[in-house]
Amino acid sequence: MDLATALERLEAAGTEQNRRTYRRHGARDPLYGVSFAILDKLAKQAGRDQVLADGLWATGNADCRVLACKVADPVAVDEAQLDAWLAGIDNYGLVDVFVAGIAAKVPGVRERADRWSASPRDWTAQAGWDLYGRIALDDPSIDDGFFLALLERIEAGIAAAGNRTRHAMAMNLIAIGSRNERLRAEAEAASRRIGTVVVDHGDTGCKTPDAVPYLAKVWYRKLARAARTDA
């Protein structure tokens, strides 16, 4: 898929309803308002294509940048490009897509998470904590000590963190607590000491979940799956 074809399809697929929704979640114009179902379909058709990703990103269009994150090639992207793209992001939704689509797939994730999470810029620190969340959920090889240290950082720093960074840190309590029973207990204890995490979600229906009841649901599902497997 070339850039002209991608732009034509994106423009044709946009709707005013989606544009209003995305703006409420922080997306800025220009944007087409393309559903994520269609974006995923286009990404599947295009495959990993760094030339296309670069062209899409350069447009500055919000939908184009989401698609760019989905088609960017982890083999062709280096640290400097990741930093440059992140520096141009100014809404939490695109941070999430950027991390899941490309930043979590380029080698050096732990070092990148350490560096970004220490940034005073809210979007950059959010990306760092999003990366830690991906590590917690996706890499079973890492020992508990790494995550216990993260829990200490969360407890010590969440109150003073930026708005979206607080949300990402709160979600890490859940991701870490989902790994095993020991980390669940530690994450729940940290959550109780922290108390309610206040995040401004703007004119949306989104909420930052309380880790303790959320983890109860996670572990109920885990145990139910295990019981079905053993049956």
Characterization of this structure:
This protein has 231 residues and is an all-alpha fold. It has two domains: 1-107; 109-231. It has helices spanning 3-13, 16-24, 36-46, 50-58, 62-71, 79-87, 92-103, 109-117, 122-138, 144-157, 163-177, 181-194, 211-230. It is globular, with a radius of gyration of 19 Å. The model has no long low-confidence stretch (mean pLDDT 96).
SSE blueprint and pairings:
Blueprint: H1 3-13, H2 16-24, H3 36-46, H4 50-58, H5 62-71, H6 79-87, H7 92-103, H8 109-117, H9 122-138, H10 144-157, H11 163-177, H12 181-194, H13 211-230
Helix pairs in contact: 3-5, 4-5, 5-7, 7-9, 8-9, 9-11, 10-12, 11-12, 11-13
Helix residue percentage: 55-70%
The chain-level mean pLDDT equals 96
Number of helices: 13
Stretches where pLDDT is under 50 for at least 5 consecutive residues are none
